[in-house]
Amino acid sequence: MQPVSFSNHLNEKLRGTLHRPTQAKNGFGFVLGHCFTCSRHTRILIELSNVMADLGVCVLRFDFSGNGQSEGRFEDSTYTKQMDEMTSAVAFMKQNKADHVLIGGHSMGGMVSLFTAARQKDIAGVISLAVGSAPIHPDRLLTKIQKEQLISSGNVSFSSRGRDLVLTRDFFDDAARFDVHEIINQITCPVLIVLAANDVVTNPVPAKSVLNSVNQNIDIFEVEGADHMFSLAEHRQVVIDHCIQWIQHNFM
């Protein structure tokens, strides 16, 4: 593992960890983004990266701006900004001799990877973990008092994972621009969606309904008993084993 950094479109420095395989295969790279208020150090991302590198794939997991060790302010976060950062990460991987780049991530990072693949047609494939049927909405994230604060002041304070954070109206306005059903139908590369059956953060039931009605490039796999973070080692292993089988079937 190697610590790396690269710049986003606003020249903010993004920090990442690069997993270089001892024997690279077919020039494949894989870029991973994290969930809403997480970092690149989420366990499922670390373990998936390690196994992918053993398979011969160069992997970059990175912190979106305003998260982890990356520069920038969390309150400036939007899906569009993170899509641009995912694009910057893909460019970084190509500079590191990855001829074919897959992208993916967990939760919001997984959704960002889907949106990026719809826009950027040179993506080889997508693996998204624990994604929902729609972007984050005030009704799902905020209390009544917080929604009133957002309406009156244009921003809202909340706490997550020990951090005091702020979201703006711009975040929710940007999120409302994205129709998951419409966007996924624009993706032309192979896609693997891994859902957690006991996910209470992004309910897998409506997600399956939306995803089953879209293009035939998508494979959907559900991990029985798993929660949103794939907290148990046995569930993470099921995820990783299925991802490897999917990659070997589609790309190797």
Structure description:
The structure is a single chain. The protein has 252 residues and is an alpha/beta fold. The protein has 2 domains: 2-133 and 187-251, 3-Layer(aba) Sandwich (Rossmann fold), CATH 3.40.50.1820; 136-177, no CATH class. The chain has helices at 43-55, 79-95, 108-119, 138-141, 144-153, 169-175, 180-184, 204-211, 233-251, and strands spanning 2-7, 13-19, 28-33, 58-62, 100-106, 125-129, 155-160, 163-168, 191-196, 218-223. It is globular. The two termini are 23 Å apart.
Helix/strand layout:
Elements: E1 2-7, E2 13-19, E3 28-33, H1 43-55, E4 58-62, H2 79-95, E5 100-106, H3 108-119, E6 125-129, H4 138-141, H5 144-153, E7 155-160, E8 163-168, H6 169-175, H7 180-184, E9 191-196, H8 204-211, E10 218-223, H9 233-251
Parallel strand pairs: 3-4, 3-5, 5-6, 6-9, 9-10
Antiparallel strand pairs: 1-2, 2-4, 7-8
Class by SSE composition: alpha/beta
Q: What's the average pLDDT? A: 92
* Spatial sequence of strands, sheet with the most strands: 1-2-4-3-5-6-9-10
CATH architecture label of the largest domain: 3-Layer(aba) Sandwich
Tell me the overall shape. Answer: globular
Strand-residue proportion: 15-25%
* CATH topology label of the largest domain: Rossmann fold
Oligomer state of the chains in this structure? single chain
Poorly predicted ranges: none
Text of the CATH class of the largest domain: Alpha Beta
Please compute the radius of gyration using only Cα atoms. Answer: 17 Å
Distance between the termini: 23 Å
Order of helices and strands: EEEHEHEHEHHEEHHEHEH
The CATH superfamily name of the largest domain is Alpha/Beta hydrolase fold, catalytic domain
Percentage of residues assigned to helices: 25-40%
Number of strands: 10
How large is the count of helical segments? 9
Main sheet? 8 strands, mixed
Q: What's the number of domains? A: 2
